[in-house]
Amino acid sequence: MSIPVPPWQQRAARERSARRPLSLDLIVRTALELLETDGLDAVSMRKVAQRLGTGAASLYAYVNNKDELHELMLDLVIGEISVPDPDPANWRQQIKDLINRQVEVLAAHPGIARVVLRTPAPTGPNALAVTEAMLSILRAAGLPDRAVAFAVDILALFATAAAMELSADFGLTDEQRDERISQVEQYFASLPEDRFPTLVSMLPVLSQGDYRERFDFGLDLLLNGLAAWKP
Amino acid sequence: MSIPVPPWQQRAARERSARRPLSLDLIVRTALELLETDGLDAVSMRKVAQRLGTGAASLYAYVNNKDELHELMLDLVIGEISVPDPDPANWRQQIKDLINRQVEVLAAHPGIARVVLRTPAPTGPNALAVTEAMLSILRAAGLPDRAVAFAVDILALFATAAAMELSADFGLTDEQRDERISQVEQYFASLPEDRFPTLVSMLPVLSQGDYRERFDFGLDLLLNGLAAWKP
DNA sequence: ACCTGAACACCGTTCAAGT
DNA sequence: ACCTGAACACCGTTCAAGT
């Protein structure tokens, strides 16, 4: 049995760090909280430190710089993707599920996709596991090695770009989003027909289909193209 | 005939702005100089203003905020893409050329591709011209309208993501780049075979092929997929 | 060894005050 | 009307000084 600390002895700002001492794990998880609610731009060394009741300088004992912190966050996010065992009869659906899930978890952490495009190759353990899964699914499907290697690259690029687009309007209220959409629509409707004849004539089709349909369309193009590589 | 200004009357920092007064055009072109040499992160309101011999506050008479300046820059960059008249027999090559050129000009202005992913739709006059061209080429090729509309979206996304990847290592010296590559290679060579069997066994293939081959592979997947939509 | 306050060199944007 | 210095509220990172 321990006697409780009197409230006037608790320094509010230090409470958390007094109970839970700093650690890499704590830092990254605190940063992820910030990411989910406020987006990547809000994940600054200073704001993360503030949440932990300390100063930004303290984080540098665990992390070399902000980019490294962002990369650690990314791998934890990628860790939310669960990977299946290859089922050759189902390779298309397996790849589709993996890519869709990847877009989903990236978009759920607004801005983190930027980190993917900044990093040369997936080096975190979770990113490696996803890459391993994609490679083995495509290989089990009977595609030539070269197509497998290139396809994994292209599919990852595609998923990342889609996630970036999805989180582009993060931070706007629903009203702001609606206003933006109607502004864009008005703008396009006002374009001169003689300079942009095809665009103007296609306006109804161009505004058709939400993100899902467009993304699925693109993914199917890629997968159809890939299937054609089967010997 | 005008008498030259004596050197001691020229205030160096103000020289440019004294001769050429501020204008939106001058601001955007100055920003583009900075972009080409130093990358998007260096294009700050303060640095652009400094180049013009003034303070950041002065730019706000011509531009609402930094994002708007970045968008104006983007459209000038897109303007470097020249658009062809549709040639139905050659639609595949025309699209390939357009997309390759787009990646080229975006990558030549390191970081500007980020602005594309941030903007909801292409609204600048030059971006509209490129969109009009892509739409008309695909339509003239005989693709259904819906496929045309979706394809333009997907192709633009693909080109933008590729350009982002290409400018990812901007700012590094050749030595730093080489060191990074060899570090990544060493890391991958050290991975445990039991956890990443496919990855490890495919290492030689994975490091095969440069950016061009991978990008062409992906573009061909998309175009093959598209061609299949022809009725 | 671990932590941190203060400092340095940057940001975007606003606004009162100048011409 | 056009321009701007100074201020405000932020950054990432370093480093000497503390325990």
From TrEMBL, chains A, B:
Instruction: Output the superkingdom of the source species.
Output: Bacteria
InterPro entries assigned to the protein according to its UniProt record, in alphabetical order: Homeodomain-like_sf, HTH-type_TetR-like_transc_reg, HTH_TetR, Repressor_TetR_C, Tet_transcr_reg_TetR-rel_C_sf
| Listed GO biological process terms | negative regulation of DNA-templated transcription
**UniProt keyword terms in alphabetical order:** DNA-binding, Transcription, Transcription regulation
What positions does the DNA-binding region cover? 44-63
Sequence ranges assigned to domain HTH tetR-type in this UniProt record: 21-81
PANTHER family the UniProt entry points to: HTH-TYPE TRANSCRIPTIONAL REGULATOR RUTR, TRANSCRIPTIONAL REGULATORY PROTEIN
Give the protein name, as stated in the record.
Answer: Transcriptional regulator, TetR family
* Record organism: Saccharopolyspora flava
For this protein's source organism, the top of the classification is:
Bacteria, Bacillati, Actinomycetota, Actinomycetes, Pseudonocardiales
